[in-house]
Amino acid sequence: MAKKITVSTIRKYKENNEKFSVLTAYDYSTAKYIDEAGVDIILIGDSLAMVALGYETTHSVGVDEMLIFTRAVAKGVEHAMVVTDMPFLSYHTDIASAVKNCGEMIKVGANAVKIEGFSDYILDVIKRLIASGIPVMGHLGFTPQFINMLGGYKIQGKTQEAADELLKQAKQLEKAGVFSVVLEMVPQESAKYITENLSVPTISCGAGKYCDAQVLVSDDVFGKFSDFKPKFARKYGDMKSLILNCAKQFNDDVKLGKFPNENEIF
Ligand code: KIV
After folding, report:
1. How confident is the model at residue 1 (pLDDT cuts 50, 70, 90)?
2. Where would a tag sit more exposed on the chain, N or C end, judged by fewer CB atoms within 10 A?
3. What does DSSP assign to residue 17?
4. Which helix (H) or strand (E) covers residue 40, if one does?
5. pTM
6. What is residue 214's three-state secondary structure?
7. Could you tell me which CATH class the domain 7-235 is placed in?
8. 208: pLDDT strictly greater than 60
């Protein structure tokens, strides 16, 4: 079995200019297979609000729910680093509750947490988390929890000035101690500029090929979630059809008396 991926593995990837992969997972079996496939980081994204719970936005998911999914994923993973997304309002009100909520994720098996956004307060939260032994992944560019401030699903860092501002924020996150930064919906050239000027790895979520790593929502990759598909996602399979076919065949077999057969009874 390959060695467990840790923050030092991720640091080495950047030093050696080696690309790495990140996929979301929300349940035990899926996490187990993604881990077996050799993916480096498994993220329990708050995207589970939409893809696993059917909510409209990530705002509706809470710490209680993230804990259940984190525990399940962590149980299935041996090799990958397990990172949990901290949900809306779980780290925004005060530092003590931020540390408590993030600490709960570590207690159920996460190896690190992801925190969206940038402000002096967020920098203080990150520093306190790291001082408590909790590694932090940053998240800049389009940050879904701030959608009401950003005015919708908008590409971030489009001009040189905006890319400079993103780089400034990323550098401050780096100084506060994050081990990596997700760049979401940032033009490829801006993401390249940020990646080249940062010593921690950047993880592209629709930010092009020059980032150090790529992240996608696994339900998009597997073709399972079908309510919408982001432009930057690539579908590698068609789980929706697979599930539909299996469920239809089972339904038919039951109704035609073809299930169970002689080998499926006691
Ligand atoms: O919630 C999520 O799944 C994410 C990633 C896609 C970056 O934040």
Report:
1. low
2. C
3. T
4. none
5. 0.97
6. strand
7. alpha beta
8. yes
